């Protein structure tokens, strides 16, 4: 049986933070060169509400993923803006013990078990949208890291992974620099 791949695809600073200490991430630049490349390669990572504004038709095929995973803190900014289903073109799963919703699937316990079951289902890949605590819980099942690293140093904030010391080896597959100074780093898990 071929298992689906879990990819942690996220923006980060040079010093490894995905958000500021309060969870904000709106300071990451929207660089046209990076966005054009990533939107072409991973159109499903564009929230549904913005797809037509950037020229993605509603029927644009998902290339890499058909499922998105979010922690509560990653889901709440869209929710606060009235987006109860931010990625309606994907199966949306939010891991939270406090939220209840009818627009996305809520998983209240055992994120690792839930992802192991998802990986055995047929379909495209699974995108871990964020955040650091959920990424840490799912680290044993993360097959690929795609990090849009921006030339910013934050000094503090929410790290890519926020867990206890647990070395996990990944291999660098590619480092794609952009004129804007960003680099898209792709790693795969070492066997």
From TrEMBL:
Give all residue intervals belonging to the Bacterial bifunctional deaminase-reductase C-terminal domain: 5-183
- Any one Pfam family match given in the protein's UniProt record, by short name: RibD_C
Domain of life, per UniProt, equals: Bacteria
> Which InterPro entries does the record match to this protein?
DHFR-like_dom_sf, RibDG_C, Riboflavin_Biosynth_HTPR
Name of the protein: Deaminase
- Per the UniProt entry, what species is this protein from, by scientific name? Asanoa iriomotensis
At the highest ranks, the source species' classification is: Bacteria, Bacillati, Actinomycetota, Actinomycetes, Micromonosporales
């Amino acid at each position: 049986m071929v298992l689906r791949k879990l990819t942690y695809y996220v923006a980060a600073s040079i010093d490894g933070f995905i958000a500021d200490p309060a969870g904000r991430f709106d300071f990451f630049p929207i660089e046209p060169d990076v966005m054009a490349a990533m939107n072409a390669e991973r159109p499903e990572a564009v929230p549904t509400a913005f797809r037509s504004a950037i020229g993605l038709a509603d029927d644009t095929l998902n290339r890499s993923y058909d499922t998105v995973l979010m922690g509560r803190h990653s889901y709440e900014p869209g929710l606060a803006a009235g987006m109860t289903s931010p990625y309606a073109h994907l199966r949306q799963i939010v891991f939270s013990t406090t939220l209840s919703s009818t627009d996305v699937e809520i998983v209240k316990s055992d994120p690792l078990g839930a992802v192991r079951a998802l990986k055995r289902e047929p379909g495209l890949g699974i995108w871990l949208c964020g955040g650091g605590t959920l990424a840490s819980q799912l680290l044993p099942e993360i097959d690929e890291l795609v990090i849009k690293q921006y030339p910013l140093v934050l000094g503090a904030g929410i790290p890519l992974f926020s867990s206890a010391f647990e070395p996990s080896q990944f291999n660098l597959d590619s480092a794609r620099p952009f004129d804007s100074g960003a680099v898209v780093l792709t790693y795969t898990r070492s066997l």
